[in-house]
Amino acid sequence: MARITAGIACSHVPAIGVAMDQGITDQPYWQPVFKGFEFSRKWNEENKPDVVFLVYNDHCTAFDASVIPTFAIGCAAEFVPADEGFGPRPVPVVKGHQKLASHIAQSVILDEFDLTIMNEMEVDHGLTVPLSVMFGDRKPEDDWGTLVVPLAVNVVQYPAPTANRCYNLGKAIRRAIDSYPEDLNVHIYGTGGMSHQLQAERAGLINAEWDQNFMDELVNEPDKARKIDHVEFLRETGSEGIEMVMWLVMRGALDEQVTEVHRHYHVPASNTAVGHLILENHA
Amino acid sequence: MTEKAYDDIPGTFVFDADRSREGYWLNQFCISLRLQKNRDAFKADPEEYLSRFAMTEDQKQAVRDRAWNRLLELGGNIYYTSKLAAFDGIVFQDLAAIMSHMSRDDYRKMMVDGGRSIEGNRYKSEWEKK
């Protein structure tokens, strides 16, 4: 049977991808960011997933203002890295697991979560940066070393789905994956965050104390974390900090009790607080 | 517009349905610049390219002026307007500096020193006291 063995939380700051693509990760500015990913890559190598279920948000790349699905699952055979205005990232095409993706779609829709199904979709830095963090440098002609089922969440137009809704969707995804007959090691990623505001006069906002507390709650008291409301996210963590609802999808798909095997927090990467967790299921 | 629970957050435009409706063509213009052929067309004849989108005159003027906060006020969303900035060769962090009225170096230093503090930046009332 398929099983979720671990959950990974990870910021998806585009500049992290740019730093890797330009080979400047050992510069003093970037060194502390990437130092915190060294453990992750080793851990990932030792606990290699067959499939990553990757919760991220599209940044008006695949979805412009004309279509704004709250939750969209990628059921395509492959997902091409998009041109986000500077040319596509020089990274591999992302390969899907079509049978698992459509099984999950069917299962969670019958479980009353009405997903949008994407049979064609380009993917942006929101998806490829966390893969780069965990899988290291990969050239376009390489492969990522895992199959991926993407789930795009709207966090651009208010309101994003609530933290609680995301958490419960995570539980439905867990039920779906648990009921898939193929023997697969699945990791689930919740990406984005942590505190950051990219716009207007409050740009650059960071709330490290809130972020650390959120990580504690997410790991040990998810029933608290899933009750955080949107205004708290907006006020305390910046207008783009609301991306952290996506971490709740990941947490919902894990056991009630998990082991935190790695935590990394650093300010800044560009305009953003970088947060990263690796959580293992016990079973 | 009715009072919203997030209206008292300072220096922030929450991109909700009202802003999305107002900014629809502005945002569609901005996002079109994601593609090279559209960047080429905008570069070749900015006014002709702008005329392809049903923006208000205020929105068009804010585009011409590159008035970044005004664009947000008129319904633009940062992920869209940043495509216009990218067209101009402005990287995200420098755009953030411009929007918060700081020099590039001061903004960068603020971020390296831990970012803009949350203290004093939660409520508009805190800014009005300044």
TrEMBL record, chain A:
Domain of life from the UniProt record: Bacteria
Gene this protein is translated from: pcaH_2
Domain Extradiol ring-cleavage dioxygenase class III enzyme subunit B residues, every copy: 8-274
InterPro entries listed in its UniProt record: Xdiol_dOase_suB (IPR004183)
Annotated protein name in UniProt: Protocatechuate 4,5-dioxygenase subunit beta
Originating organism: Sinisalibacter aestuarii
Membrane spanning residue stretches: none
TrEMBL record, chain B:
InterPro entries: LigA_sf (IPR036622), PCA_LigA (IPR014159), Xdiol_dOase_LigA (IPR011986)
TM ranges: none
Domain Extradiol ring-cleavage dioxygenase LigAB LigA subunit: 26-112
CDD domains in the cross-refs: PCA_45_Doxase_A
NCBIfam families with a match to the protein in the record: PCA_ligA, PRK13377.1
Protein's name according to its UniProt entry: Extradiol ring-cleavage dioxygenase LigAB LigA subunit domain-containing protein
Organism: Sinisalibacter aestuarii
